[in-house]
TrEMBL record:
GO molecular function (one): D-lactate dehydrogenase (NAD+) activity
Keyword Cell inner membrane attached: no
Key words of the record: NAD, Oxidoreductase
UniProt cross-references to CDD domains, sorted A to Z: LDH_like_2
Family membership: Belongs to the D-isomer specific 2-hydroxyacid dehydrogenase family.
Name the UniProt record assigns to this protein: D-isomer specific 2-hydroxyacid dehydrogenase family protein
PANTHER family, per the entry: 2-HYDROXYACID DEHYDROGENASE HOMOLOG 1-RELATED (PTHR43026)
Pfam families in UniProt: 2-Hacid_dh, 2-Hacid_dh_C
Domain of life of the source: Bacteria
Family annotation (InterPro entries): D-isomer_2_OHA_DH_cat_dom, D-isomer_DH_CS, D-isomer_DH_CS1, D-isomer_DH_NAD-bd, D-LDH-like, NAD(P)-bd_dom_sf
Length: 330
């Protein structure tokens, strides 16, 4: 079947072509899918998208009018899709529920080590023949209290790794994970977790209930100097509120792989552009903030799994088989 693949990079082409054993007609488009670019998918029964493609009501109506029947997400998160509208229009939405929770959990841990031991500063300093240790002081992770918000697949991997460091693991999740309880994770209310953790790592999905779960009120509960890590979705954090908390010292370190307005920035080379997002520029200016551009998933293993599950989702739909990875309206 004809598949229009949006937001595609060279690596998407490489892995999707390799996984395309059934010979679907894959057409790669670099632009993001929006209402403006949707006409590129005219007469394509299948549209394949990533996290910053915009599948709002307007885009979905254009797609439905043009004959699209399936939206195949190359991601686990589906907060960028108006699933109710897709259902109303008879468009099936499928996703890749798990491709490598290790990739994201390991990146979160990398951010913790980078911020704690100031490796970004140490690397540049030594290259400059400056061997001073001033300003590089860190803290032991052993015995450190680590709060995990969301203990699904990624949160569980993160808990396993942090247990290896000898951390005390605290968690908040409306649905506690028995595997995490077995690891020794202590579940508690969000407010208690925020008050007791030296490091807080976010691993819950972005939904109306979790939008700005980290806001001015919840930030006040933190211990001064807490490390906050977000590899989940930008919308979990109220950016102006976290900027205030960094300025006051309430947040001592911030590591983010995701940013609420990232669709205007991430995945592109903007090095010759004057970035207009003042909040982002302010965050970049702080010495205790580490930003990566939504790369936590970006391992060879994850890309292979994303490509094979996406092609198998497309194959199921094309053959009229039930789509096991369908996103259903809850
Ligand atoms: P998952 O569905 O396995 O786990 C999510 C967990 O969050 C579940 O245990 C659920 O009970 C819990 N949860 C639901 N509502 C909550 C709430 N209000 N407060 C706290 N926890 C709540 O998902 P996963 O595979 O672990 O992925 C988690 C998130 O990571 C995804 O939703 C996605 O946004 C993000 N992600 C980011 C990247 C990246 O590259 N940065 C890659 C993949 C996934």
């Amino acid at each position: 079947m004809k598949v229009a693949i949006f937001s595609s990079k060279q690596y998407d082409q490489q892995f999707l072509r390799a996984a395309n054993r059934e010979g679907h007609e894959l057409v790669f488009y670099e632009p993001r899918l929006t209402a403006t670019t949707a006409p590129l998918a005219k007469d394509f029964p299948i549209v394949c998208v990533f996290i910053n493609d915009q599948l709002d009501a307007e885009t979905l109506e254009i797609l439905a009018d043009q004959g699209t029947q399936l939206v195949a997400l190359r991601s686990a998160g589906f907060n960028n899709v108006d699933v109710a509208k897709a259902t109303e229009l008879g468009i099936t939405v499928v996703r890749v529920p798990a491709y490598s929770p290790y990739s994201v959990a390991e990146h979160a841990v990398g951010m913790i080590l980078m911020l704690n031991r100031k490796l970004y500063r140490a690397y540049n300093r030594v290259r400059d023949d400056n061997f001073s240790l001033e300003g590089l002081l860190g803290f032991d992770l052993h015995n450190c209290s680590v709060g995990i918000v969301g203990t699904g697949k990624i949160g569980q991997c993160f808990a396993q790794i942090m247990k290896g460091f000898g951390c005390q693991l605290l968690a908040y999740d409306p649905y506690p994970n028995p595997a995490c309880i077995e690891l020794g994770v202590t579940y508690m209310a969000l407010e208690d977790l925020l008050a007791q953790s030296k490091i807080v790592s976010l691993h819950c999905p972005l939904m109306p209930q979790t939008h700005h779960i980290i806001n001015a009120a919840t930030l006040k509960v933190l211990q001064p100097g807490t490390m906050l890590i977000n590899t989940s979705r930008g919308g979990l954090i109220d950016t102006p509120a976290v900027i205030d908390a960094i300025k006051s010292g309430q947040v001592g370190y911030l590591g983010i792989d995701v940013y609420e307005q990232e669709e205007n920035l991430f995945f592109e080379d903007l090095s010759d552009t004057v970035i207009q997002d003042d909040h982002f520029q302010l965050l970049q200016s702080f010495p205790n903030v580490l930003i990566t551009a939504h790369q936590a998933f970006f391992t060879r293993n994850a890309l292979e799994n994303i490509a094979s599950t996406t092609l198998s989702n497309i194959g199921d739909f094309a053959a009229g088989r039930p789509c096991i990875n369908q996103v259903k309206l809850t």
